[in-house]
Amino acid sequence: MMSSTNPLRTPTLDFIARLTVDVASPWELGESAHGQRRFIAITGGDVTGEGLNGRILAAGGDWQTIRPDGVAELYARYFLETDDGERLEVENTGFRHGPPAVMQRLRDGEAVPPEDYYFHTAPRFFTTSTRLEWLNRTLFLGSAARTKDNVVIDLFAVG
């Protein structure tokens, strides 16, 4: 039996890659019972890092709900292709929120320092590559920022 005086191992975060996800302008779907619904198409991008390199394919998108409390619930699905030609499917969920004035500046396309708002994701990877099979069984955390034309995500494996 485990004692509460002997804590379990504290997880570590190991940097894997930076994803620069190029995005189109949002398609506003309107107000729903859960908040404002919108879709943002993913148009490409790059993946650079010691653990993963390649490009983001222009295939996928981010379905968002902006809740009445101002929190953006994010659900993105898209594909990556490594420099070796191996394809990965990404399913990425997360939250983005901050003070109303900061969030308005982001919506207006202004450059806002990432420390001024909360933006984190929990990516999941799916691949048939034997070389990259470890992605199928590892938890990841993304620390993200929104720019006018893309979303930048620093990807960390939880160890």
UniProtKB/TrEMBL annotation:
Coiled coil: none annotated. InterPro entries: UPF0311. Pfam families: DUF3237. Belongs to the UPF0311 family. This is UPF0311 protein ACFO0U_10145. The lineage of its organism: Bacteria, Pseudomonadati, Pseudomonadota, Gammaproteobacteria, Oceanospirillales.
